[in-house]
């Protein structure tokens, strides 16, 4: 008996050692990837490569990229090789290289590499994650529907949500109690997106525990297990598909699908038209335009919900984070706050005190403050791309292989002292009419750039109006 268990133990040990040697050799080989390709690289660590352990990070991945951008730039590098665990990740540093990836040579970098699975996880197949032709066709159909006229009409819904927030804020001020401003603005974000994308009146201030608010929070607060699944989808999409991995929690999928089904049925039955995102999607669904995109079928309820869902995901956190940081910076810089307040008062006087789309458009200094907030605190700190066909970096003998992940550090660019002097300083004057003209393309891109930039900023002329629209 003792002999058997000791043999078993030795066998296990031998298997373990053999496995450890295989893993070690594999990592040693892959960690030489950039060296073999003659690309300068940051020394990776076993096992997470050049990033922190994603399950217990101390800073965000965007900040890590920002630091790596800074270090590489200080060394005079034009690009740098990184590793996500054993997976190579390419980061352009030089502005020309950045421009090529996000705009000029976009055809090589059309995808983000974000995992989706329309069959088992229908809400994951949205504009942000879709790939290649599917993405291109859907984007082409959706972009022209984001007209400033439609945004202007939708603004009324936002004002309505703003009113709920103002009443609740008056109450808070009367009681003189403190509040968690991020959570508070999250409530406002929920109301805006609930109303504009799903056509429902949530009023999170009256009912902070509404189903919509609770499920929305659940959709955004991913567990470590969900993060691990997203990560698996990123590093091994085929395996994740085979395992039918779903990244959206089941209760979230069920909830949003149910809301959408009910709202669409109600609107279609009662012939209701409303100036909101859902109406835009419904018009697309009913116009047969989607048949061109998808071949024969029209938009299904799942596909429609997935698009409304990404408007919610992409719009909610970005906007509430921006508003929170904007208030934070104004609290830190009372002089700036005072200037904003004076401007608002002066502009509103000429509009009989009415907060409306046009009056907000006239608040130029407020716009500068928001622009500077987005520079210092970009809600998305890096852009993701995947190389979809071998790409020779112009002027070099380096080829980026098909399948390589590419990360563009927005954070690094926004804090680059060559482009933004004294980058730590909160200075809205950088965006004055005169100074704005001096800002080179691609050094300031809180909404991304190129054909895959944020759809919430289209058409480009009304990009800032749209953001204003989100702030009120
Ligand atoms: C302060 C507000 C916002 C910021 C800073 C922001 C930022 C961004 C960024 C950086 C990207 C990636 C762009 C790229 O890869 O080049 C993006 C994509 C996207 N955003 Fe926004 N966003 C904001 C608000 C919104 C809103 C309100 C919506 C809702 C309509 C939205 C919908 C999207 C969508 C659908 C995409 C994916 C576009 C595509 O792949 O075609 N965003 N956003």
UniProtKB/TrEMBL annotation:
Chief place of localization: endoplasmic reticulum
UniProt cofactor(s): heme
Subcellular location: Endoplasmic reticulum membrane; Microsome membrane
Pfam families in UniProt: p450
Residues holding heme: 454
GO CC annotations, alphabetized: endoplasmic reticulum membrane
Record's keyword annotation contains ATP-binding: no
Record's keyword annotation contains Magnesium: no
Keywords: Endoplasmic reticulum, Heme, Iron, Membrane, Metal-binding, Microsome, Monooxygenase, Oxidoreductase, Transmembrane, Transmembrane helix
Family: Belongs to the cytochrome P450 family.
Protein name per UniProt: Cytochrome P450
Taxonomic source organism: Pyrocoelia pectoralis
Lineage: Eukaryota, Metazoa, Ecdysozoa, Arthropoda, Hexapoda
